[in-house]
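note to self: dont lose this again. the chain is below, predicted strucutre after it. 441 aa total, dont forget to put it in the shared folder this time
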Amino acid sequence: MLISYIWIFNFTDMAWRRNNCVLCYDALSYYAYLPATFIHHDLSLSYVQEEPGALDGHYHYHLSPTGKRIIKTSYGMALLYLPFFLIAYIAEYFRGDLHGGFSEEYVKWIVLGAGLYASIGLLLLRWLLDRFFNPIVSGLTLLAIFLGTNLLFYTFSSPSMPHVYGFTLLLLWLYCYIKWLERPTISSTIIIGLLSGIIALVRPTNVFILVFIPLWGLSTENGILHQIGLLFSRRWKLLLMGMCFFIPWIPQFIYWHYQAGNWLFFSYQHERFFWDDPEIINGLFSYKKGWLLYTPVMVLAWLGLPLLNRYVKAARWAVPALLFLSLYVLMCWWSWWYGGSYGNRAFIDLYGLLALPLAASIQFCYDKGRNAAIAASILVLFFIGHNIFQMEQYKHGAIHYIAMTKEAYWDSFGRIHPSKTFDTLLNHKRPRQPELNEPEP
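---
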């Protein structure tokens, strides 16, 4: 049902025909590798200087220590865009004009590509949930994850951002890892290694999924000695997995060396982590961009963490470790609010894995009897309605993309459109400000 909704919405809304921001802001860095490689045949971006008026707005880059232009982000997202870019490229080629890689045809296929990734992610999530929960709980959890969170927004309104892709890649990794535990073939080992490298290329913090290797399956029955013994018996396959991790990184290392003079290069330059000052409370609860304030259905996931030992023993340690490690690192980043966005987008990639404790909360209520099951179902449906209403508020400006305050939040409460005094209640001050220009949504 949800997959049908994705495609019906995409082909009726046709966002690519409107003045919709798909290839803009952060996505310009992710996407830049493709037109640079396939259309201009120049990853040094020297052609931008030759046509500054036409091309400056399409490329975000920094100057490396060698004085060369360097794309800010790694090429991971470009790799995921690639099949859809090539479809558009072939279509435009036969029309006789490649349009520099930024025509409506390219935008359309990026939008449809995000829809495909979301569809695959939902199928993988259904498979994962059905391993541990009854079909009703699995179905309700799917609805909560897709319709009750900002994953919905980033599937349709910001499809070029990495979150839908990360959501699916992490679920695909877990699917492959579970199969590997059941039957550790050489081919599955190579696939997991390559997939791990791609995950890190797309969004480096998602590499924390690797904590699942020692922790998935660790339980009271299967103690730490059993886990160590299992992994030690497969040590050569783990070594092969680690070697394969670096294969997708080879082109990135070469690019950095060519443009910056170093095999490893931090291309974000002045941006940084504040390791001694994580903004965890603000990141979770603030009116500016609190994750649990704007995506309250995820409170059920937090409540379900202690219940994993009852319903998903294999995830008892793995999911909390991933959540807490990600929470700390993500909230140490200078822009803990992660720019202009609907809600705190930093956690969307984790939603497929957090679906396990969320489903555990729902299953717990269902096990308590009919009244508790009805109450849990109504609560999930309320959160879904709340999320969709907030998206309408965001669309019409009643939730600001970056400057919300307590006063602005309550002024807009229950309103689709902002009040006349709404703008005066906003706060555009950035709590931690390196010297850079922050993109708008």
